[in-house]
Backbone:
């Protein structure tokens, strides 16, 4: 009898624990903020570098958080818009442009003695839906794009010192990207891109014009396609001044491969921009990843080696090194389904300098 009463009691307790009410809500568990021992240094990257140290930014972060703005203007001297200078953010309809966010960023840069790198005039993912749906023929397509480039570059003449005219038109093997809007329109897509460089140069003759892509130092096919395009442009009077490698790499990326590919890129003699730097530590995109001292040291070594590599190139080829973000909490890599377990930048979630910052400083010395 006592045993029966005991079992009934257990069942009642279990039933009460499982019973839900209309006020029950799911428990949301946020990823823990990883506490990293702070790096103590009074030196700044901009004090040691004889080139620009940039960061990709969003207007909403600048206006929404004082710590973000203070770190940006205190630690960097050039900015790139992560999104707001792309075509679909500006070109709202055929004859209408929204320059409000670009104006804000340009004014912010001027007020804080920063330069601006424009990103990007042509990118296959940023053509507005209204433009794609119009199904323009080749002549109309180029005519509309020409007006867009002239309008945007001309508006910021003397205020935006450089532009990525084209971004990511090649596959890693050097072929044209099949999803590119320009691939299906033109028999000679590279020729079209060259004319876009000319349109930008006409709108602002003093602006430095770049082609930008990812995995450049790793993918020899892509790198060769970029080099061949640059040679063609130079031989035909197209004003191209530099090449950008986004430098989205990881702690497991071969440093030897990076070194060899980078040397090949520098051999072009053009300005070199490391344009979107970050370094993944959670290389398997694991939702259970835990940041650790070993990976932090590997990341520090990556930033040290990258800074050292760039610092060694001829002075007339140095344009700048741009981080693709400021703090880990805002990195685009946290949108990759890994449970927010990514920490690729120089500053942690509370804007403390990470070992990566110290490594970068060491590489600049």
Residues:
């Amino acid at each position: 009898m006592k045993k029966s009463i005991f079992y009934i009691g257990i069942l009642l307790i279990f039933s009460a624990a499982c019973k839900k009410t209309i006020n029950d809500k799911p428990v949301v568990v946020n990823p823990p903020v990883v506490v990293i021992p702070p790096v103590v240094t009074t030196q700044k990257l901009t004090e040691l570098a004889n080139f620009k140290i940039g960061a990709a930014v969003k207007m909403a972060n600048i206006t929404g958080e004082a710590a973000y703005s203070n770190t940006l203007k205190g630690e960097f001297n050039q900015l790139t818009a992560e999104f707001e200078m792309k075509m679909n953010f500006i070109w709202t309809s055929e004859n209408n442009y929204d320059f409000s966010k670009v104006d804000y960023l340009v004014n912010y840069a001027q007020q804080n003695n920063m330069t601006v790198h424009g990103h990007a005039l042509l990118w296959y993912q940023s053509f507005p839906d209204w433009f794609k749906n119009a199904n323009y023929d080749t002549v109309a397509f180029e005519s509309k794009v020409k007006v867009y480039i002239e309008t945007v570059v001309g508006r910021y003449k003397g205020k935006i010192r450089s532009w990525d005219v084209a971004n990511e038109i090649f596959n890693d093997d050097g072929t044209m990207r099949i999803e590119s809007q320009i691939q299906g329109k033109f028999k000679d897509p590279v020729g079209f891109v060259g004319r876009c460089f000319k349109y930008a140069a006409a709108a602002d003759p003093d602006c430095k014009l770049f082609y930008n892509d990812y995995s450049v130092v790793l993918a020899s096919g892509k790198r060769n396609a970029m080099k061949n395009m640059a040679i063609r442009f130079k031989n035909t009077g197209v004003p191209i001044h530099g090449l950008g490698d986004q430098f989205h790499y990881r702690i497991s990326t071969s440093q030897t491969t990076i070194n060899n590919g980078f040397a090949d890129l520098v051999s072009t003699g053009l300005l070199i921009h490391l344009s979107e730097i970050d370094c993944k530590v959670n290389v398997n995109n694991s939702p259970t990843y835990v940041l650790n001292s070993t990976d932090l040291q590997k990341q520090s070594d990556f930033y040290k080696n990258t800074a050292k590599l760039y610092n060694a190139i001829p002075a007339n080829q140095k344009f700048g090194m741009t981080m693709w973000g400021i703090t880990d909490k805002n990195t685009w890599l946290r949108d990759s389904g890994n449970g927010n377990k990514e920490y690729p930048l120089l500053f942690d979630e509370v804007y403390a300098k990470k070992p990566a910052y110290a490594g970068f400083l060491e590489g600049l010395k």
